[in-house]
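From the shared-data thread, chain only:
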Amino acid sequence: MTKQTRKQNNMKRGTIELVLLLLLQKGQKYGYQLSQELEEYSDGEYELKEATMYPTLYRLTQNGYLICNQVKVGVRRTRVYYEITPAGQEHLQDLKQEYASITGAVDKIIRNTK
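Structure, as tokens:
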């Protein structure tokens, strides 16, 4: 793993819940759909692997921020749809405020250290 990749992974780790909840505020979606939308909306710059996404979705569900519904697709396949709850909407607002605060502070540091 390159130094640049490590830096990007560390930055991304702090935003995973935020971006997943942002996508889910527009309606219920299943995992593959979420990963495709993340890639699309970021012009391919934000890729989220299943090994990272699903544990985050499970944690958000356990914390009451999401509900999930299993829907049978075809004869033997089941697709799990995730939907944001009112508590999840509140958590999203908190995450957005925290993100704005942190990025604003980092931006100030960058400007003041030039």
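Residues 6-10 have pLDDT under 50 and may be disordered.
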